[in-house]
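Quarterly update, task 2.4: ribulose-5-phosphate-bound model.
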Amino acid sequence: MQAKRAAGRHAADLVASGARLGLGTGSTVYFALERLAERVREEGLDLVGVPTSVQTEKEAERLGLRLTTLDREPRLDLTIDGADEVDSERRLIKGGGGALLREKVVAAASEELVVIVELSKVVDRLGTTFRLPVEVVPFACTPVSGRLKDLGCEPQVRGADGEPSVTDNGNWILDCTFPEGIADPLGLEVELDRIPGVVECGLFIGLAGRIVIGHDDGSVEVR
Ligand code: 5RP
């Protein structure tokens, strides 16, 4: 927790007054939200945020952060978000919290995506420690699963007790295991985008700016 807290707070300290922010989702982001709320109270930091999930919307509201939408603010200065894996080319796997679609939309609307992770999320090859989430329209789940198997992975519907989890967008998630990891993330993203019924995948390529890595001793490094 110390590593996530350090990364989250460090990223929140990068925010300048007047910022239009994308607010990611997850436990690391929560620490950033807490720090942003502190800065609003203590320094009068002026900011407005677009949440990437219902969960973040609720947390931000509870902390007293001012929220807006992409309809009102289609261009954002900075997004702060977590990740499930990061490689040396700043490519990411995201979607552990199921918010990948809105997270990608918000990241793409931002001047910079600042990624906050603990050191264990830094990997040599994507897909080796975390399954790739793919958001699908429920109607298309079975044919999409077949197409995903053809791409060399084993997809599994996310859920509990046989009940699929439903995303904030009313879709399902297929968590895809790649036995050898993902050799060609960009090529895979292109293939996934071509499958009818796939809404979005958790590969974030060419979107990340600074990567803030938290360590267990509370220190951070920025790559
Ligand atoms: C949610 C995400 C999260 O950012 C990712 O799962 C990391 O979460 P955490 O900070 O809790 O480890 O992509 O969809």
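Highlight for this quarter: The mean pLDDT is 98.
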